[in-house]
Specification:
The protein has six helices and seven strands. It is an alpha+beta fold. The chain has one domain (about 5-175): Gcn5-related N-acetyltransferase (GNAT) (Aminopeptidase, 3-Layer(aba) Sandwich). About 35% of the residues lie in helices and about 30% in strands. It has helices at about 20-40, 75, 100-120, 135-140, 160-165, 170-175, and strands at about 5, 40-50, 50-65, 80-95, 125-130, 145, 150-155.
């Protein structure tokens, strides 16, 4: 199966996507394309090259700003009061395709995209909201850290992203 990640477009059939979470389903079906058009976010879909209309999984990336007081202590003192960052705002895998590593492919892709942005713009890392303990454990595998007093908000520092990307960890993760 040859897969590719691409920006959501009109060729993708959003109407049948079902990840089991109504909010994530509603976003891809009703809002994602509008957000792309307005420049609010970018939604990327994972598709099979032979059947690019069918969405296997998707992720949405946004730019965010946060306060330095909300990041782990070791970085807090190094930064000014407000910080630019990237955020993995949404990640969803079709129910029929879950537990096959497709979410992991998109997380790795998000890390790579964040690294590429950091080469051209200033950002401190990648953030994600973990909706439950299982999601938190999932993101911890990639090196995400819990933020103080925000147990559902996780942070992947730019230094970890650079190390992950340059050491080929992404390739190791993709092959597992």
């Amino acid at each position: 199966m040859q897969l590719k990640v691409e920006v959501l477009s009109k060729i993708h059939d959003r109407s049948v996507f079902d990840c089991g979470d109504e909010k994530l389903n509603a976003f891809i079906k009703n809002m994602a394309h509008q957000h792309i058009r307005k420049g609010l976010s970018r939604t990327f879909v994972l598709v099979e090259q032979k059947n690019p209309e069918k969405i296997i999984a998707y992720m949405t990336l946004v730019v965010c700003e946060l306060f330095a007081e909300n990041i782990p202590h070791q970085w807090k003192k190094k930064y000014p009061r407000t910080l630019p960052a990237a955020k993995l705002a949404r990640l969803a895998v079709s129910q029929k395709q879950q537990k096959q590593g497709f979410g992991e492919l998109l997380v790795v892709d998000a890390i790579h995209k964040t690294f590429n942005v950091s080469e051209n713009m200033g950002i401190v890392g990648l953030f994600v909201d973990a909706k439950h303990e299982q999601a938190k454990n999932y993101y911890n595998r990639f090196g995400f850290l819990s933020l103080p007093e925000q147990l559902d908000n996780l942070f992947l520092p730019l230094s970890t992203i650079i190390e992950f990307t340059r050491n080929g960890e992404a390739e190791k993760t993709k092959s597992n």
